[in-house]
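User: Good morning. I'm curious how arginine would be positioned relative to this chain. Could you predict the structure with it bound?
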Amino acid sequence: MDDRVNITMKPVIDILEERISLALADVTGLGPLPALVKPATDAKFGDYQANGVMAAAKKLKTNPRALAEKLVAQLKLDDICMPPEIAGPGFINLRLKTDFLTGNLLEINADTAHLGISRTENPKTIVVDFSCPNIAKQMHVGHLRSTIIGDSICRILDFQGHKVIRQNHIGDWGTQFGMLIAYLKQANPEVIEDPDSIHIADLEQFYKNAKARCDANEDFAVLSRQEVVALHAGNKETLNVWRHIVDESRSHYQPVYDILDVNLHQANERGESFYADRLSGIVEELKQKGIAVESDGATCVFPEGFTNKQGEPLPFIIQKSDGAFLYATTDLAAIKYRIDELKADKIIYVTDARQKLHFEMLFATARLAGWVHAGVELVHVAFGTVLGENNRPLKTRSGENVKLKELLDEAIQRARAVVEEKNPELAEAKKERIAEAVGVGAVKYADYSNNRTSDYVFSFDKMLAMDGNTAPYMQYAYARVKSIERKAAKKDVDVESELAGITDLNLSEPAELDLAKHLIRYGEIIESAFADCRPNYLTQYLYELAQKFSAFYNACPVLAADKATRPTRLLLCDLTARTIRHGLSELLGIRVVEQM
Ligand code: ARG
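Assistant: Good morning! Here's the predicted structure, ligand included:
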């Protein structure tokens, strides 16, 4: 037992990769070569497979099978694996030793907060730009993805030990305010006198009216532009109304963040207005550096490699001919601020895929300006659209955007029916709590479990189904594991004392081994979910965990097991519950419930 390696803090896949890669360098004399270790696609080939030999053999112009044999003869993995097997043209199949699994599980068990997963050795300052609703409108379903995907990226980074700076780049400075304020002055002067009386529901109506008036009436359009100028020039009265509009909007979106368990607060806001007094300086700097030029009266940057269909260079417009700054200008000021003042090593922008070109041009321009020094990484994490059952972007019957608040309310209401069916005898307050966890959880989980870059169809029926890869299925799986503890108490099994000071396990049944092998992969999954910013890796992992647990629980009695096996099985139950809870509630912000 004592020669068990104490390296489990690192995902086993990384250890295997490292060791095999070194051995490959040794036998080929070619220097470091990737071992290409992957989880095996089929358990009959083992647990992991290394595929790097073929490429190495090609380089050496030698027989891959022979090279694989040489490699395996060199390889020292006996603390982790059974003797490696060579298959096909030179695949190396690896099967974990039970002793190794035991050591891993015990370490995970001992590390209550981190489940045996090491923090990064190289902590970075990472800015995550996400959510970013536009002020004076309620959040709609279009904001869902940025808000929750961004939040889970932050949660994962936090867990890995990075310094995370959440930035809510709210749209609080655009031309819509000119229109809105001009309209209020004309149609609802009482609101100007008493900005406290502004309410978001009215604002939305004002906004629609203002837009209509603007489109119909050129004089009004001129007035609107004057109001923008007044706002941007810091006119007191205009600013006062503006501030109330922003506050009123916040009092609407903050509760949406709260119910979503999204960690965003006013302190995370660096809206467009924050950069207002930096914009002219940005344009000046780019002009001086010879990067920005006049084109048709506007000031533009033409980063290399961006052309329209005719092959003409595409402009990244930073100032219009009337002097107005744009979305692009603000983003340039923000990127500079984040690198220079927030000291970002990495900036992640979470927006829908339609902004792809904007971010490519933004990054190219920032690089041209010399702001992006070596070591700074810029990433656009793009996502697809939420669709209705008709495969078109989700809208209400009357063709409007679906308000996020209403969507979540409906989800909770529908979840309530599920709870009612499953567990009618629960107390009312408990039912409420569960319905909220399940309803909101279902919306979030459905979003996370879809491939981020694809569009997906929003379906209450599917996301609230008790089977399949859904939140209710996962929450139920968790509650089911927890119910074993309750049953134990009734049968006078003292789980705590059986697990206290546990130093050895007795893993032998195939279902136990299968579950154990999946449990130790959690750290590996978190790493890959972060590397690609893809929460669906996590949901997929958790779903498989719940399934493997089910198979284990069906095959292996836990409470009725004999003395020699019961602690092992209790530990498998406990680690499963802890992993599901951690994945759902810590990394995805989805509540778990003890009973469903
Ligand atoms: N408010 C913008 C929108 O609704 C999103 C802002 C994204 N972040 C940024 N730095 N551009 O489209």
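The CA atoms of residues 124 and 162 lie 5 Å apart. The first helix runs from residue 12 to 28.
Let me know if you'd like a different ligand tried.
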